[in-house]
Amino acid sequence: MYLNNKLFTNVEFYYYRSTFRKQLNETIVSSKNITNLIGHGVSTSCTQSLLSGISEFNERVPLFEKKGPNLIGIRLTTKEVVAVDSSKVYFGNSEYGDSSGVASFSDSKHALKKALLEFYERQSFIFHWINQESGKSLEKSDLGSSLITSTYYKMMEKTFNEISIAEISIFKGVHVIFIMGISSKMKAVGLGSSDNLQSAIANALREACEGLAGRDPLKISWNKNIAIFDKNSNEEAYLKLSPQKLKRIYAFLFKVSPKIPVVNKRTNTTDFWECLSINENMHHIHIIAVAIMTKDPRIKEFKIITSFGGYSHMYPPKIPEQERDSYLIDKALNKQCFDPIPFP
To answer: In the chain, how long is the greatest CA-to-CA distance?
Structure first.
């Protein structure tokens, strides 16, 4: 794992290790100079927690750099080279931005796939929120023994009285899962994506558990004072809600949802890449990959954007008007919501 050479002089590093087996360990890496430049890693594995926190921090560092007005991107379906406005990638050149569609890895193909999954995941989530569209619900009896007996599901079940799961992908070849846990004192939400349905659920479970690190569900209250950097954010909208209010707000995702069984449903790697053209044609978008230069040439990083259509970020109040009808088939029939998405 590459550590930024300024890691121990310009950032704060926190690691919280559980004294018990199969409990969550948490790593937080935050910049002393740049607000909202944070890496966060939570896992039952000490090593994975550290790697995740440091990787996420290193992944976000380049996004805060200022660049010239134009970048070069590649349309993945045609290999066409296109000019890209740098404000779509780098925060220093934009009014508002986030890391949606950004991922890194040690080799380009895996980094690109991770970025595409991140892109599909966030675009699907924003679409459902803005248009208040229901997903497809999953029950515990649908999940299968491997998921029900997993550490993360057991942790959720021990902490929450209610666990709600919905499949919300609007793209072919990928599954996007939203999970919500609710109890009288605690709440949690998580997103996960994969070309394998069970892996997508496992990823969402893992993310939903990130807010549980070091917390005793018998002692903590949902409205515990938590300092956040950005007062106009999805995170702020999430933190100020009680568990029951959060449940009511997300009720639309599970309303009259057809249940779908979880089998070993997999879209193989070839299908995943072939679905790029299908998704472009279906939604009238061009999917563009932009390479992001990192301090370590061994790390490959990409951001996935669209040249037109799609959402440029995940904060609805600042989504440009021309993007608001993205992915809609009948624009006249959808009631749209542009409130912040309550998501940590």
So the answer is: 56
Alpha-carbon gap, residue 211 to 309, rounded angstroms: 33
Classify domain 1-64 at the CATH topology level.
Double Stranded RNA Binding Domain (3.30.160)
Residue 39: CB atoms within 10 A of its CB come to 21
- Average pLDDT for residues 214-226, to the nearest whole number? 50
Q: Distance between the two ends of the chain, CA-based, in angstroms?
A: 26
Q: How far apart are CA 123 and CA 128, in angstroms?
A: 9
Provide CATH 3.30.160 ranges for the chain: 1-64
**pTM here?**
0.88
Neighbours of 100 (CB within 10 A): 21
The one-letter code for the residue type at 247 is K
User: For 129-180, how does the pLDDT look when each residue is reduced to its tens digit (9 = 90+)?
Assistant: 999 999 999 888 888 888 988 989 999 999 999 999 999 999 999 999 999 9
Q: Please tell me the number of Cα atoms within 13 Å of 4 on its side-chain side.
A: 24
